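From the thread on structure requests for the teaching lab: each student submitted one protein with a one-line request. Submission from student K.M.:

"Model Nucleoside-triphosphatase THEP1 from Aliiruegeria lutimaris, tokens only."
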Amino acid sequence: MRLAHTGSDIPGKMNETLRRLAEAMQAEGARVVGAVQLNREPDSEDVPCDMDLKLLPDGPHMCISQSLGPGSTGCRLDTEQLEAAVHECGQRLARGADLLFVNKFGSHEAEGRGFRDLIGTALSEDVAVVVGVTEAKLEEFRAFSGDLAEELPCDFDTLLEWCRAGMQNAQ
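Reply posted by the TA:
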């Protein structure tokens, strides 16, 4: 079982690094599943960006944010869309995979939902897993993963090397 997590305090870096990593591994022939996050920038400074997931390996894109209206400050995560994305990723994992990418271990996962069970399923099937984790959810992720997870810097080359090693170990 191979589980790695990475994070960055630089806005957008974790999402971009995981997206590039998934593309690189797919180009090398890895069967990748899961989701990477693509944020769509808003038309106005007063509106937060929209959060889209690209389901791996080949789409579709699913918007997982919802508009709460002007001045709202609540969580914009569309949990129904997130769960639909998780379900589709689970179907793809069942068809076989080498790597599972999870864009973020967030509040939903910390509460036992979202990608949490899919991470466990992938690990039980010897599929290497790479998870994005923000500083705000690091303790919850550690409670979930115990001593299984390797913490890696949000560095493309380091993560690429980890993924390649995971592929060699699985063969």
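TA comment: The longest strand covers residues 32-40. The CA atoms of residues 97 and 139 lie 28 Å apart.
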